[in-house]
Amino acid sequence: MRQIAIVGSGPAGYYTAEAAQKQWGDGVQVDIYDFLPVPYGLIRTGVAPDHQSIKAVSRRYEATSLSDNVCFIGNVLVGDDVSVEELRGFYDAVIFATGAPNDRELGLPGEDLANVFGSAAFVGWYNGHPHFASLDPDLSGETAVVIGAGNVALDVARIIAKTRGEFSGSDIVNHALDALDASGIERVVFVVRRGPHEIAMTPKELGELGHLHLASPVVDPADLPPEADDAALDPGQRKSVNLLRAFASLSDADRAGKHRRVEFDFFASPVAFLGQGKVEAVEVERTQLEDGRAVGTGETYTIPADIVIGCIGYRTSPVPGVPFDDRGGILANVEGRISDGLYCVGWARRGPSGTIGTNRPDGFAIVEKVAQDIGEGAGKAGFAGFEALAAERGVDFVEFHHWQNIDKAEIALARDDAPREKFVTMEAMMAAARG
Ligand SMILES: Cc1cc2nc3c(=O)[nH]c(=O)nc-3n(C[C@H](O)[C@H](O)[C@H](O)COP(=O)(O)OP(=O)(O)OC[C@H]3O[C@@H](n4cnc5c(N)ncnc54)[C@H](O)[C@@H]3O)c2cc1C
After folding, report:
1. Once rounded to an integer, what is the mean pLDDT over residues 266-276?
2. Engineered SS bond to 170: which of 49, 129, 204, 211, CB 3.0-4.6 Å?
C-alpha cells in the first residue's frame, strides 16, 4: 500500500488526491492535511461570496473525501504541529498543495499606513478566513483605491460597490455584510499600470460591473486604443476590451439612479501612499507603454483614498524544512519535485496563476512523477504513524465527519437568503466540529 500525504485541501490538493486514486485504485491511501478545520482552501476563503456557482466545485472534492482511501485531517499546521521530516517518515510521498496565501507587497513608501491592505487580507475578511476575520477595515470614507487589473481586483471592487440586497444568495459573512452596508464608499478607482489591451480581467466577471444596482463603470474614452487594433487580440481579451468600450460610451441617462462610480485609471502606477497614520491619498505616476511594458513618464498626481486594497498577486508561505524560492515566492522545485519524497503542486508550485481547473492537470502531472519515484511504496505507517504522534503531542486534529458537523451548523445559522453563515474563528469551528 502506497501512503501519500497531501498538505493543503484546496483545489490542487483534491485534484491530486483524485489523480492518485486514478493511478493506483485501492493500492493507495491518501491523507489530506490542512491547518484549518474546514476543507477546500480558496474555494471557501478566496472565491467571491456572490459567485456561488463556482464554489459548487467543492461537491466534487466532497465526493473524493467520502471515498474509502482518502482522508481529510484538519486543524494540523504542517511545519508546526508535525514537522515535514516526521511526515516524510510516515509517508512514501509528501505533496505540498499549500497555495499562495500571502500578499505580494508593492514595496512603496506608506504601505504600512492604516487602511492599506492586500487582497489576501481584505478578501479573507469578507470571506471569513480566521486569520483576517478581525481586520475591521474602515469603510467610512468616500473613495476606495484598488490596485491591479485582474479578476481579484474586480471581485474586491464589485463587493465594495454592491448594495446589501445584491448579496442575496451569497455566503458573505455577517460582519462584512453589515460593514459594507454601512459603508460610505461612493467611488472605487482601479489603478492600472498598463492600458485596456493589457488587462487580465475576464469578460464574464468584467461584464458584471455593468449590472450593479447603484454603481456604474467609468472608462475614459481617451484611454482606449484605436478600435482597429482590437483585431490583434485573442477573442476573450477582445470581449473584455469591447466591454470597456461599452463602459466608455455610457451616457448620463444610462447612469441614471447610479450614484456610485467604479473608475478605471489606466496608465497609472502607484508610487507612494500618503497620510497621517491612516491612508489619505495615493501618489501615482502616469505611465506609457514601451514594448508592452509600463514605463513612468515622470508626471505624478494624487488620488484621494480612504482605503487602499492592493491586488497584485500572492506568495507561498515558507514551510520549515522545505527549500523556498524567494524570488518566485514559491516552494523551490523542478516540475513539482522538491527533494527525495517531497513534491509540490498548484499555486505552491507555480505561483498564483490560472483558474481552479488549471490545478487539475497539475495534480495529474505530479502523481505521474510520484509514481515513477515510489514504485510499490515502502510499507510506511501512514495515518497510524501520525495518529500516534498526535496523541503523544496533544494535536487536536479533526476528520471529514467533523467538517460535516461544521457544515451542518453553518447551514443552520444561515440568513434567510444565504446558503450558510461561516464560523470565522478556529475556536468556533472546533466547537462546531465536536458537535
Ligand atoms: C480572491 C480569489 C478569487 C478567486 N476566484 C476564482 C474564481 O472565481 N474562479 C477560478 O477559477 N479561480 C479563482 N481563484 C483561483 C483559485 O482559487 C486557485 O486557482 C486555487 O485555489 C489554487 O489552489 P491551491 O490548492 O493551489 O491553493 P489554495 O486553494 O490556497 O489551498 C491551499 C490550502 O493549503 C492549506 N495550507 C497552507 N499551508 C499549510 C500548512 N503549512 N499546513 C497545512 N495546511 C496548509 C490552506 O489552509 C489551504 O486550505 C481565485 C483566487 C483568489 C485569491
Report:
1. 98
2. 49
Tens-place pLDDT, residues 182-221: 999 999 999 999 999 999 999 999 999 999 999 999 999 9
CA distances to 48, 103, 155, 330 from 315, rounded to whole Å, are: 20, 6, 19, 6
Cβ atoms of 101 and 77 closer than 8 Å: no
Question: What is the Å distance from ligand 1's center to 112 Cα?
Answer: 25
The whole-model pTM stands at 0.96
How many whole angstroms from 105 Cα to the centroid of ligand 1?
18
Residue 254 CA, chain-centre distance (Å), reads 33
Give the residue-averaged pLDDT of 341-360. Answer: 97
Q: How does residue 158 score in pLDDT terms, banded at 50, 70 and 90?
A: very high
Residue 34's contacts (CB-CB under 8 Å, 6 or more residues apart) are: 7, 8, 9, 13, 41, 72, 73, 74, 75, 76
Q: Which atom of ligand 1 is nearest to the CA of 101?
A: 30
Angle (deg, nearest 10), helices 58-65 and 11-24: 50
Q: Are 274 and 200 in contact (CB under 8 A)?
A: no
Q: Is the dihedral of CA 151, 41, 421, 128 positive or negative?
A: negative
Q: Confirm or reject: Cβ of 330 under 6 Å from ligand 1.
A: no
Over residues 65-104, the pLDDT tens digits come to 999 999 999 999 999 999 999 999 999 999 999 999 999 9
Average pLDDT for residues 362-385, to the nearest whole number?
97
224 pLDDT more than 90: yes
C-alpha cell of residue 285: 505616476
Burial 162-201 (b: 16+ CB within 10 A, else e): beeebbeebbbbebbbebbeebebebbbbbbbbbbbbbbb
Amino acid letter, residue 66: L
> What is the tally of helices (H) and strands (E) in the chain?
15, 19
Atom of ligand 1 nearest to the CA of 317: 38
Q: What percent of the chain has pLDDT over 70?
A: 100
DSSP state of 3: E
Residue 187's alpha-carbon distances to 190, 251, 389, in angstroms, are: 10, 18, 54
Q: List the grid coordinates of 72.
A: 481529510
* Cell numbers for 435: 458537535
Provide the residue type at 178 as one letter: D
pLDDT band at 435 (very low <50, low <70, confident <90, very high): confident
Pairing of strands 260-265, 215-218: parallel
For ligand 1, say whether the CB of 311 is within 6 Å of any of its atoms. no
